[in-house]
Amino acid sequence: MNSYTAEQKPVIALCSRRGSAEDGADAHGATRTSLYKLKHDLLSEIETLKEQVRRPKIEKDILEAAAARISGRTNKRQNE
Fold it and tell me: What percent of the chain clears pLDDT 70, i.e. is strictly above it?
């Protein structure tokens, strides 16, 4: 279940297009400009978080591939 902050709710309304940006801003006591700025900030934060998740996954894949190669070499040497 999602629990959104007071700042996130008008942005969600804006993105789902329930009414105009002006109506959404008015309903939440904000300006249209501040609503769009907050939307931009939240989307930027999402991209930053996605990158923070993506990097360790790539590093993990590289380390697993390296470990498999090293393990393969070790097994070949033991069999010789």
Answer: 89
